[in-house]
Amino acid sequence: MILYEYPFNERIRTYLRLEHLFSRLGELAERDEPVDHHYAITTIFEIMDVGGRADLKTEVLKDLEKQKHVLNAYRGNPSISEDALDEVIGQLDGFFSALNALPGKVGQTLTDNDWLMSIRSRAGIPGGTFEFDLPAYFAWQHLPGNRRREDLQRWMGTLLPLARSIGMLLKLLRDAGQPQKVLASGGLYQQTLPQGRSFQLLRLRLDSATGVIPEISANRLLVSVRMMQKENDDRLHTYTDDAQFELTLCA
């Protein structure tokens, strides 16, 4: 099964991009090879680029506080465990405090690291991080893997509060949706969305054995999914058979 996700707004789009980058960074940082650690560092720079908006931290803090109020409204509900509720709200409080304690924008502390910024200034140039341009970086790549991992963990630590906050917000959003089995008749599926509800994320789960690829478009009024298939000419062509998939709309 392959899971596709489609955001309804720019804020969720940014959250998904950051979640993807944090996941990649975590995987690369655990390895030993210098080339993996090179791409871990460039991923840190991507996170700084995506998360560098001045208002992003404020948006995440507002969303954490909003989720806390939503969950508090469930107190007294006999079908909700008070212990589980307290645990989640406690996590939200912890993430809020840790993120709020960070100075300035996302990655602000890293911008004060001249050594890292010298790499960042060259990383966008093809081959710009070669040894004759950055001999100090070349020497770092020859350190033992555990030494490089320690440095990476130290730099990543300044970004962890954002990673954990976004991870929690996306988890709560995904858990709020109810999956339904639907059919793309002749390779096309459309659904009119109910007025008065504001959806934030579409999740589409599809059997990879079908070989089809969904092209998704969505707004506050309509969801449209057109199934495509990659042919031998390396182009996507319209898929005209019926295709079943699982659709989840998260508000």
Tell me the fraction of residues in β-strands, as a range.
15-25%
Largest sheet entry: 4 strands, antiparallel
Total number of domains: 2
* Helix share bin: 40-55%
State the order of secondary-structure elements, H for helix, E for strand.
Answer: EHHHHHHHHHEEEEEEE
User: Would you tell me which CATH topology of the largest domain applies?
Assistant: YacF-like
> What CATH architecture of the largest domain do you see?
Orthogonal Bundle
Class by alpha and beta content: alpha+beta
Overall strand count: 8
Strand and helix layout:
Elements: E1 2-7, H1 10-29, H2 34-50, H3 56-72, H4 82-100, H5 108-111, H6 114-123, H7 135-140, H8 145-157, H9 160-175, E2 180-184, E3 188-192, E4 201-206, E5 212-218, E6 222-230, E7 236-238, E8 243-250
Antiparallel strand pairs: 1-4, 2-8, 3-6, 4-8, 5-6, 6-7
Helix pairs in contact: 1-2, 1-9, 2-8, 3-4, 3-9, 4-9
Structure description:
The chain is an alpha+beta fold. The protein has two domains: 2-172, YacF-like (Orthogonal Bundle); 177-250, YacF-like domains (YacF-like, Sandwich). The protein contains nine helices and eight strands. It has helices at 10-29, 34-50, 56-72, 82-100, 108-111, 114-123, 135-140, 145-157, 160-175; strands spanning 2-7, 180-184, 188-192, 201-206, 212-218, 222-230, 236-238, 243-250. The strands form two sheets. The protein has a four-stranded antiparallel β-sheet with strand order 1-4-8-2. Strands 3, 5, 6 and 7 form a four-stranded antiparallel β-sheet that branches. A hairpin with a 3-residue loop joins strand 5 (212-218) and strand 6 (222-230). Helix 2 packs parallel to helix 8 (145-157) and helix 4 runs antiparallel to helix 9. The mean pLDDT is 94.
